[in-house]
Amino acid sequence: MAISAHAASWFVPFVLPICFYVAFTDLAQMKITNKxxxxxxxxxxxxxxxxxxxxxxxLWGLGHFAIVLVLGIILNAxxxxxxxxxxxxxxxxxxxxxxxxxxxxxxxxxxxxxxFVTHRAARASPLxxxxxxxxxxxxxxxxPMGLALGPALALYLCLGALNGA
Length: 165
Fold this sequence. Notes:
The protein is mostly helical. The protein has helices spanning 5-29, 34-51, 55-77, 83-92, 101-123, 135-138, 146-163.
């Protein structure tokens, strides 16, 4: 199963602002807020039954949420990922069709590299003066993963809306 163009095009207008909010708050505060991930979950809960091809797809999406939540909790407890990142991934999981997982991982790797290089370059440039109080500038070892996670989900859904299954 891959995401249908119909479902993705319904999700895009609601999910894109949340994805960009996640990227912004992680840059500014090094936090992915609960209200952002809860909004992401609410969009899926409300729209999912109406826009996904079958109710079975909707239930699989909820199953993806549960599986990724458990994995995220384990990775967070092991210190491999932040709690906000784990929450975002679990609430983003229902939007991703299992058949698209490989494609999404490739896209995420590309977005992650681009986000990392852009963040580090902006931090070292005069652009930093545009937002001098951003917490992510001060971090030497940590990176605001929301800067990659949000845009990766946004890109996936936009490509799904354009190309579909």
